[in-house]
């Protein structure tokens, strides 16, 4: 997932994507705690993707606030 794909989404779609990423992050942490996680780098990737979504949501909110 790259930033341009996220910028093309609506804020509602971004919030849904963020919820999905948080759920994925939880599942990965749970797998790590039980010793079932084969690739621990996936945790960092999920966390960074969530940060990307949050950043773009904040950018869109700032643009909307200045446009009013």
From TrEMBL:
- Gene3D superfamilies, alphabetized: 1.10.287.310
Q: Does the keyword Ribosomal protein apply?
A: yes
Q: Which InterPro entries match?
A: Ribosomal_protein_uL29, Ribosomal_uL29, Ribosomal_uL29_sf
Naming one, the record's GO cellular component terms include: cytosolic large ribosomal subunit
User: Keywords for this entry?
Assistant: Ribonucleoprotein, Ribosomal protein
Gene Ontology biological process terms, A to Z:
translation
Q: Single GO molecular-function term?
A: structural constituent of ribosome
Q: Which PANTHER family match?
A: 60S RIBOSOMAL PROTEIN L35/50S RIBOSOMAL PROTEIN L29 (PTHR10916), LARGE RIBOSOMAL SUBUNIT PROTEIN UL29C (PTHR10916:SF0)
Family according to the record: Belongs to the universal ribosomal protein uL29 family.
Tell me what this protein is called.
Answer: Large ribosomal subunit protein uL29
Q: What is the lineage of its organism?
A: Bacteria, Pseudomonadati, Pseudomonadota, Alphaproteobacteria, Rhodobacterales
């Amino acid at each position: 997932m790259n930033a341009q794909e996220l910028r093309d989404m609506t804020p509602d779609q971004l919030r849904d994507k963020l919820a999905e990423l948080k759920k994925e992050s939880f599942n990965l942490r749970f797998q790590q705690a039980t010793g079932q996680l084969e690739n621990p780098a996936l945790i960092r990737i999920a966390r960074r993707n969530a940060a990307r979504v949050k950043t773009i949501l904040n950018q869109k909110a700032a643009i909307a606030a200045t446009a009013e």
